[in-house]
Structure formats: C-alpha cells, structure tokens
Design goal:
This protein is α/β, with parallel strands linked by helices and 247 residues long. The protein has a single domain, classed as Rossmann fold. Helix content is 40%, strand content 20%. The chain has a 7-stranded mixed beta sheet, with helices on both faces. The longest helix is centred in the N-terminal third of the chain and has 15 residues. The radius of gyration is 18 Å and the shape is globular.
Length: 247
C-alpha cells in the first residue's frame, strides 16, 4: 500500500482531490464541485482505502490487460476514465456511462480541460440496459458499483456487451461468510440509512468470495481471479478487491 506521502504526491499530480472552483464548471450547480470530495471521503469510510490509490490500482490492472475498447460502467466522479485516458501506455478508447446528466456534463468539461476528450466518449443511459451493441467491448470496468444492482441482471448485461474473450474487472468489497448478519454490518446499515441518509448504499448487497465466483459462473463468465487491495481490520471486516473474469 502507498505511504501517505506517496498518496499526497499522486493526488497533487492529477489534481483530483479537494477540487477548487474552476471557470469551466461555472454553469453547473455549485455543489457539484465538491461531489468528488464527498465520494472520496465515503469510500475511505467504507473501505479504509484512499479513493485515488484504489482507482490507480484498477487503472494499472486495465492497462496491463492490453485491451482497446473499454466500457466504463459508471462515470460518477470520472476519475477512473480520465486517469485511464491520460496513461500513455493505454492506446484505446473509453466509453463511459452514467444516468446522471449533471455528472456527465462535469466529466465532459474536465476531459476537455485536460485535453483528453478524444480518448473518451461520455454517454447517458437508462438502467439496466447499456446502449451498446452485443459483443462490442473488449473490457468492462465496474468500480464500487456492483453492490447497488441485482447481481445476476447486472452481470448478464455486462456479458452481453463484451466480445469473445472479453474481460470484466470489478472493484468491490468482499465480505467474509456470514458478515452481513453481524452487529457491525447492521450498525453501518442503520448509519447509512438514517445518519448519512444514503438509502442506496444502506441497501447495498455485498458478497463473499465463493458467492462472487458462483455469480460469475452462473451468468457465463470463467477464469475468475482476485487481487485484494486491503487487509481486514477485524474478522468480520470486508476486503476491497479487484475481481477479474473472462467471457
């Protein structure tokens, strides 16, 4: 894991943390410029990891795969898409999707500001179907999003848009068997529901390693591998992992 100094240097290099007011965001709601900061704080609270470090590791995984048509299944802060597009070792194109048009506009303006717009196409979509033809993508990435969806439906749609031997990379929390029934899990769920007022996260479904493998195989993926990015603090703590599978 990176040291605090290394993480700070990385954040400064890409200028993604603690966003400052920017002229090209002037026409968007003022709160949108602090959205990413809130996402990073929540991610750290939930996983114990630095948000930018986790995305950095995910981008490394994607670059090493050598694929050229990458489907970013959720634009959100756009950090993943922008960072991948900025890698000199990535020769491909990214198709990034979100149902939130405000976040998409923010992402488009950031891409233009960083002169990366030629490598990324941001698209609006209505869940659960992606406006992508069957077998189009070489690789799909889901960063911290699987838990918000019905797993079989979500994974089946991803399988549809991937070509033969296409890759899926999911960055998600894996819980130890039985953890969803622990007191800590119940407390965090109540905290999300009533204190943070985030029902989407409160009702998120996390899986253990065996359940994830079973889900992948059920919809038709194969050769599932794991790379853990965190170390559990307690026996019932989840592990944030990169999970890769082949169509």
């Amino acid at each position: 894991m990176k040291t605090e100094t290394q993480t700070q240097k990385y954040q400064q290099k890409f200028n993604f943390s603690a966003p400052q007011p920017r002229p090209f965001l002037a026409n968007l709601p003022a709160r949108i410029d602090t959205y990413e900061e809130g996402v990073a704080r929540f991610f750290h609270w939930k996983t114990g990891l630095d948000y930018y470090y986790a995305i950095d590791q995910t981008v490394d995984f994607v670059v090493s795969a050598g694929k050229v048509k990458v489907i970013d299944l959720l634009t959100d802060t756009s950090v993943f898409a922008l960072q991948l597009a900025g890698r000199k070792a990535f020769p491909g194109r990214i198709y990034s999707f979100d149902s939130n048009v405000t976040l998409l506009e923010r992402a488009k303006q950031r891409a233009a500001h960083l002169n990366l717009q030629q490598a990324i196409e941001f698209r609006n979509f209505k869940e659960p179907l992606y406006p992508v033809q069957d077998g189009y993508g070489d690789l799909a990435v889901s960063f911290f999003d699987l838990h918000r969806h019905p797993a079989v439906e979500y994974l089946s749609e991803i399988l549809r848009i991937l070509g033969p031997d296409g890759y899926l990379i999911i960055a998600e929390i894996l819980e130890p068997r039985g953890a969803r029934f622990s007191w800590t899990r119940m407390w965090r769920k109540l905290h999300l529901q009533f204190i943070q007022k985030n029902p989407a996260e409160a009702h998120g479904m996390y899986y253990d390693r065996e359940e994830i493998i079973a889900l992948f195989f059920k919809v038709g993926f194969r050769q599932v591998i794991f790379r853990d990015l965190s170390i559990p603090a307690r026996s019932h703590s989840g592990i944030f992992s990169l999970i890769a599978a082949t169509k």
